[in-house]
Design a protein that fits this description.
Keywords: Dioxygenase, Oxidoreductase
GO molecular function: dioxygenase activity
Oligomer: single chain
Shape: globular
Order of helices and strands: EHEEHHHEEEEEEEEE
CATH architecture: Sandwich
Pfam families: 2OG-Fe_Oxy_2
Largest sheet: 7 strands, antiparallel
Protein name: 2OG-Fe dioxygenase family protein
Bound molecules: fe (ii) ion
InterPro entries: 2OG-Fe_dioxygenase (IPR018724)
Length: 212
């Protein structure tokens, strides 16, 4: 092909029933044992396309290099397994397929990692959805999908061209049922800290993070 376009960034809205379908499974998430904050819950699964079908790969440990993750790089993390029942829902399958189609993983058989993450926060102490700061995940593509955002101040999704940029190219609140996919080789990203917007109530931010 003479002219080949390069994927940079895409954002889209999915039907609201998608979040409704997967949301209950976030209440069942086990704590992320690698961040001892009491505010972070998480599971993990891996997928790959095979003859146009998407199959779940056997559970494995997750490791990022110290160059990429300055907080937990080099640490082998054995996250809890994602609920099979949730994975089989039409809603989750829609999200997974959307990510794989947009990034080409459905055709090139790239392994897709999915992290199901809840970060909670209080009114008087912040939580950091991205404790590593402005970062890359070390893949070709990263997708963030917001399932639930309740009583949250902050938690901006920010896209940068370098880790020392003062101002993000994009600084937006990912609302429920919004999906953003970015070229992880080209951009850096960060999620700003969150506070509960209602005194005495917890703030909850539920997301899926996809990488390929
Ligand atoms: Fe990230």
């Amino acid at each position: 092909m003479r002219f080949e376009n390069k994927f940079l960034l895409e954002a889209f809205q999915v039907p609201s029933e998608v979040s409704t379908g997967v949301s209950p499974y976030f209440d069942l998430l086990p704590p992320d044992k690698y961040i001892n904050s009491g505010h972070r819950f998480r599971t993990y699964a891996r997928f790959q396309s095979e003859d146009k079908e998407i199959i779940r790969l056997p559970h494995s440990k997750f490791i990022q290099s110290a160059d990429i993750n300055r907080v937990l790089g080099g640490v082998e993390r054995d996250f809890s397994e994602m609920s099979r029942e949730m994975i089989e829902t039409e809603e989750f399958q829609h999200l997974l397929k959307s990510f794989m189609e947009r990034t080409g993983a459905i055709d090139d058989h790239s392994v897709v990692d999915v992290h199901q993450i809840r970060v909670t926060c209080d009114h008087d102490s912040t939580s950091a959805p991205a404790p590593e700061g402005i970062h890359q995940d070390g893949f070709n593509y990263v997708g963030i999908f917001c399932v639930r955002r309740e009583n949250i101040s902050g938690g901006y999704t920010q896209i940068y061209s370098s880790p020392v940029d003062q101002h993000p190219h994009m600084n937006t609140v990912l609302e429920e049922n919004q999906f953003v996919i970015l070229n992880d080789k080209r951009f850096f990203h960060h999620i700003s800290e969150t506070l509960s917007s209602i005194e005495g109530k917890k703030g909850v931010r539920d997301v899926f993070v996809f990488t390929a």
